[in-house]
Amino acid sequence: SINLAHEGARAGLAELLEQEETRNVAAAALVHSLQSSGDFIGLLDIVDARLAVSDDPRKHAEILREAADIAEVQAEDNPAALGFVNRLFPLEARDRVLEDRMIRLAKAVGDWDGSLAAFAAAQEALGNDEFAVAQMRYREAMLREQELGDAPGALNCCLQVIATQPDNHEAVGSTIRLAGPQGMWAEMTKAMLRYAEERDSIPYDLIGAMTGFADGESWAALCDALSEQAAESKLSTRDQAELHWRVAGWQLNHIGEGDAATRSVQRSIQLDNSRVDTLGSLAKLRAERRDMELYGTLRRLCEIDSGQLQHFIDAAELAIEALDPESKQQSLTALQG
């Protein structure tokens, strides 16, 4: 083996590493000699030279993994180990153990830039595997939020995840949690509605998470966003009706906008006129107007909730009060029937 203690031998091999035509032989000789002499730490000095003589990604991964192990365990050099792992991860993007190791080292060193770049490169390396990319991107989102305090960066990752996985409940929930403090009502509403469309049901827990961020004037922004986007969604008319009815409750109870609440209830009834609760709400909201719309609402309640005598009493009283004699008689006869 080559005697590395000899200055001339070292200098000669170093020169050979700089020359493309002799780099392969020189690197192999150095590796053999260092390993034979037990100088594994010395291998760290020739990592780039060893990588340069091979185009095989598997060989690159082998060299970098070995270097990371030597740097961390034998040299006790966490920054160097992190550097090698950051370079290795895009080559072994599906290795969760390696990913966890990278995060552990980055946390220990306090340097995340290289690891974030490695995440980006690893996601690119995964190519068209949208599921794997989305899963990794969500893990990056949680890392950014929990370790770096980077809420905007975490939110951006979550938005990318739900762009390809709109039914990912965890990612949608995180999107709402991260967007809520910033008052991003349109983004939260869009995420919730796309999830609802994919699952064909209303996610009441996600709606509850959204309302948890509403306060004062922001209730109006939430109502506007949900009302507008629900009308344009692909949800069933029944589910759209439910959302408009909920908006009406917020407008009435949190904003004090009776007229806006009335319009929302009317939109709900247009979509589904078989609900006693929405019709009852509209009757209460229009009780003081005593007009034909109220009469029509009361008559509809009599039809779908015939066991409730009060509906008939209210409709009869309004007929006597508001209708002309002929219409009044017809209505009273119909109510008695």
Word description of this protein:
The protein is mostly helical and 337 residues long. Helices cover 76% and strands 0% of the residues. It is built from 19 helices and no strands. The chain has helices at residues 7-17, 20-37, 47-52, 57-74, 78-88, 96-109, 113-125, 130-148, 151-164, 169-179, 185-199, 204-211, 218-232, 237-255, 258-271, 276-285, 292-304, 309-322, 325-336. The longest helix has 19 residues, at 130-148. The protein is rod-shaped, with a radius of gyration of 34 Å. The mean pLDDT is 86.
Please write the string of helix (H) and strand (E) elements: HHHHHHHHHHHHHHHHHHH
Which outline best applies?
A: rod-shaped
Output the number of helix runs: 19
Radius of gyration: 34 Å
pLDDT averaged over residues: 86
Q: In what range is the share of β-strand residues?
A: under 5%
Number-wise, the strands total: 0
The class by helix and strand makeup works out as mainly alpha
Main traits of this protein?
337 residues, mainly alpha
